[in-house]
Amino acid sequence: xxxxxxxxxxxxxxxxxxxxxxxxxxxxxxxxxxxxxxxxxxxxxxxxxxxxxxxxxxxxxxxxxxxxxxxxxxxxxxxxxxxxxxxxxxxxxxxxxxxxxxxxxxxxxxxxxxxxxxxxxxxxxxxxxxxxxxxxxxxxxxxxxxxxxxxx
Length: 152
What we know:
Mean pLDDT is about 75; it is low at about 1-10 and about 10-50. The chain contains six helices and no strands. Helices cover about 60% and strands about 0% of the residues. It has about 150 residues and is mostly helical. The protein starts with a helix and ends with a helix. The protein is globular and about 30 Å long.
């Protein structure tokens, strides 16, 4: 991911940064905090539309994110109950905090992904859930690792 996304992520996830305070002030004057619309694709779903992310189908993104969150070694299978982890984390950290992480995941990853237009709404939702878990567990380092693994 581009470094501007990492700075923005840190500003949003660290409430003590000056930028986060400015963003919070701006949000209070905004139109109610509606999520930004999915940007128009600069190319087809198989190209990198300037996001810095490599094209990938939703299942590959989900499985790669799960492997990073669960810290699985190559060849290890994702446990069957792994699908329940986003719900458990939502309960553990609270709905508001999880919703914030999910909004970041949607804005900085899902909506920016060059293949997202080819994903179903359910796949986009699942990707956003898992990226939110990754953000909560590993911060922007997790997102950097995800991009690296998707490029491999």
